[in-house]
Amino acid sequence: MNESRDPSPAVSRALRILEALEAAGGAPQTLSDIARTVGIAKSSASNICAALERERMIHRVGSGYRLGMRTAELGGAFASQFNQVREFFEVVEDDPLLSRQVVQIATLDVPDAIYLARHEGRPNRLGTPLGSRLPLIYCAVGNAMLMAMADAQVDELLEQEAFTPLTGRSVSSAPAVREKIAGARARGYAIDRGESFEGICGIAVPLEPWQPGDPLMAIGVAVPGTEADDETVARLGEAMTGAASRLSNPLARRPGAPA
């Protein structure tokens, strides 16, 4: 951004510092690191970091800084604005199949899906950390959100897509994505067979917005690829569809829709 036209350059610099600490992945960043990454004087970085530290947005670790607890509180507050996220854990824990799986909710931030909430039903770690992003075209929750978009919206997104594969199974063309989405719409749920992570299969369905203005969301489950036979995938797809129904606004359900 051209700071000569920025009405609040200090705020913009503070946000860029937070983004730099996010990108560091938890590795403490010194004032010199921050100043170099953000492109500001070290004295400016020092003043802004002091203010951010007072507000618990960052905290000091030795001679460097990492994101602070306040950022986690704000992230949780963002997710809890949405009814589906608040109801998510109870719905999953009440399901005898899903309660034993890794289940997640993600929301749309084109061209990615961002993970908001996670139920840990397995002892081994699967799935994607909260706050992480994955491209819509590869991950199951992303494909599920594409299912819910109009074809024109999908085409517009694909026109901007660079197709940078995450694994050897990742799709590499717009026609391949359209074919996946058509298949997902036909069966009622999206499948990611190792396109995001080798050896992991994801199954996901879109969530209907609870109220006007809510972002597009999807709920998905991750299982080891060795367990993802057709029968298991179909059972999980059916369970995902049921969970999505229970996570819809009861006042907005169409007559005859499942409760």
TrEMBL record:
**Please, which domain of life does this record's source organism belong to?**
Bacteria
Q: Where is the IclR-ED domain?
A: 70-253
What keywords sit in the KW lines? DNA-binding, Transcription, Transcription regulation
- One GO process term, biological-process aspect: negative regulation of DNA-templated transcription
- Asked whether the UniProt record includes Lipoprotein among its keywords, one would answer no
**Domain HTH iclR-type positions:** 8-69
Q: Which InterPro entries match?
A: GAF-like_dom_sf (IPR029016), HTH_MetabolicPath_Reg (IPR050707), Tscrpt_reg_IclR_C (IPR014757), Tscrpt_reg_IclR_N (IPR005471), WH-like_DNA-bd_sf (IPR036388), WH_DNA-bd_sf (IPR036390)
Its signal peptide is none
**Tell me, what is one Gene Ontology molecular-function annotation carried by this entry?**
DNA-binding transcription factor activity
Any one Pfam family match given in the protein's UniProt record, by short name: HTH_IclR
This one is known as Transcriptional regulator
Species of provenance: Brachybacterium phenoliresistens
The uppermost taxa in this organism's lineage are: Bacteria, Bacillati, Actinomycetota, Actinomycetes, Micrococcales
